[in-house]
Amino acid sequence: MSLPPEKASELKKTIHDHLIKMDVHGKIREVLSETLKDGLGYGPHTFSEGDFLQALQRRGIIDDVMRDLQFSQSIQQDTERSREKDFPNKSAPHVAEKNRLPLNRMDIDVARRYLHLQVLGGKAFLDHLQEPEPLPGQVCSTFRLYLHFRNQRFQSKPVPCACEPDLQEGFLLEVHRDGIGEGSRMADCTTMLSICDPVHLVLIKMDTSNETTLVSSYFLDWRSVLSAPSGRTCFSVELLGVGSESKVPAGVLTISLELYPPLVETLNVDIITTQQSLERQRSAEKERLFLVYAKQWWREFLEIRPSHQSKLVKIFAQDENGVNRPVCSYVRVLRAGRLLESPRQAARFVSLLADEKAPLVGGGAKQEQWCSLLAFVCRGKGDCEDHATLLCSLLLGFGLDAYVCVGTRAKGGPHTWVLTRGTDGSITFWESLTAHRYLHQAIDPDAPPLAPQPKPSSPYRTVGCVFNHQSFLANCQPTDAVPLCVFDLQNPSRWKAMSEEALRSVCAPGSTTSLPPIPPLCASSLEPAAASNQLELEMRFLVAEHRKDLEVATVWDDHLSYLLSSALAAYETERCTGVSCGNEEFQDAVRRAVPDGHTFKGFPIHFLHRNARRAFATCLRSQFCEEIVSCRGDHVRLAVRVRVYAYPENACAVWIMFACKYRSVL
């Protein structure tokens, strides 16, 4: 196989750099010196190249070089195959294919340590015991596995749901220390033993209508591979359900772990077990001490005023695995890099994740379930608590003084939202489900009767407590009604604070082993232009079929369709920024495109999904849209425009606008 000149020179440079890193030239000079000295004692002798190679081979230098170069070569070959297969259109940077290493778009550094995690199949997913074998080309429910390890995220390809799903994947995870650059030394056994970050596995099911369900969330301690004599270990992992089924097995995955390059010396199993036991004991002791403190703090809070017993002061919340964690641990300072440009765009992104309460078997009150961040964004939907904690984390990342509020809405029922405090003392409420913002101005109950009072602008009725990643404050004002509350959080007569040191002991990153690491957000793999074109073609087909059933002809006006784009762009800009702009240009363009004596009608609508049939069925429920789609008359021209806006985590805002123009006949 011949290489292009640029590839050949690149390969030569890589080998040269690797030889310098191994100090091969120094070893060669040393062997040459020793060989010449040995030869001088036996009279004149001519050394050939073969003699010198034999000397190098006896010292094991050639074997060392070839072994390292072979490792690098195999990784490089896998990298090339991964690039060719994974990135034909830059659509799935973290998808792993079968029987090869899933490598991101980076060169493998042979001076770093890697963990090769392979999923070798699933079994005992009994909920799918009666699942029929899917026919070729048939749309069926699928499983997809998501991984997060030390700021690295991966996802598998979807496989059909079955009792024994064909989950065959490989993931290459870099094992590194925090704050270490590319030139660091390779992590040794002791360093890796101290890395207690688990591999977070999240299994998601997607049905035929693209609805997602969280099947399991599992934290894998990978350090058992440090004691494997061959540097490789294989075992089965029992996945448990979530929520009310967190004690019920959901299925079993067979997992293989292997370190690259292999360890020279392995650890004793007892050392690893002892380390894990010490970590668990340390975490349990911290959690016990915090619980003792929380109980004492709660008693003090109740002694202030008996009515505090009925306030919504939430200190702990259960995650998807049924583990009770302090609510402050669900909030982190989260920076989105280049994926989100402003706090309002962050609010828009969070609002595009669907709102869905945790499923409950049988009747009764709402089941409470706060999700870890990875489970929430992989599933793409969650309850108001998940939205509020994510939005608060993002606003903290943008440098705002943000808190999650726990209380009730005006319509009744518990609710959470986000509060930010300005440097001038202004208070702004952020509704995480809609991205709406409300400026809070408290009503003064002691003001004179005729004094002007601000009107409540927010939909919130009561607030019991506020918290973020390092603060927890309970409302100890005489009333918890939001319009009367003063959010002077530093005033102990209005807000009772928990000790920040106590919160830090159980909520700071790495403080306990039960805290899941916070994953980074992933860029969208969606191509907005292609998705918009595809959905628009599907909508045109559905409109034509609908009018065909009504025995009405369909004539499209492409120019009018194009003009609708500016309206859709204005709608999305308004949702992101709260500022309306561009409507004047749209209205002027429509007036020019619609002749005198003609009537124009338009109907915009917004969706969070790209299912054309679902969207069209929803549109037809509107009488105004149905009038446009079914328009009859003289010289009728129809138009439809679709615009898909992509956000992180494959969230999308879909705008569709139907329009028609026709000659008015009196």
TrEMBL record:
Q: Where is it mainly found?
A: cytoplasm
Give a single Pfam family match: CEP76-C2
Annotated CEP76 C2 domain ranges read 108-262
InterPro entries per the UniProt record, alphabetical = CEP76, CEP76-C2, CEP76_C, CEP76_N, CEPT76/DRC7_peptidase-like_dom, Papain-like_cys_pep_sf
* GO-annotated biological processes: regulation of centriole replication
Q: Which residues form the CEP76 N-terminal domain?
A: 10-69
Query: Where does the chain cross the membrane?
Result: none
Q: Does the keyword Cytoplasm apply?
A: yes
**All copies of domain Centrosomal protein of 76 kDa C-terminal, residue ranges:** 528-663
Keywords associated with the record: Cytoplasm, Cytoskeleton
Would you tell me the Gene Ontology cellular component terms? centriole
Subcellular location(s) per record: Cytoplasm, Cytoskeleton, Microtubule organizing center, Centrosome, Centriole
Record-annotated CEP76/DRC7 peptidase-like domain positions: 368-498
> What is this protein's function?
Centrosomal protein involved in regulation of centriole duplication. Required to limit centriole duplication to once per cell cycle by preventing centriole reduplication.
Q: Which PANTHER family match?
A: CENTROSOMAL PROTEIN OF 76 KDA
Concerning its family, UniProt says: Belongs to the CEP76 family.
The name of this protein is: Centrosomal protein of 76 kDa
Q: From what organism does this protein derive?
A: Gadus morhua
In the UniProt record, the gene name given for this protein reads CEP76
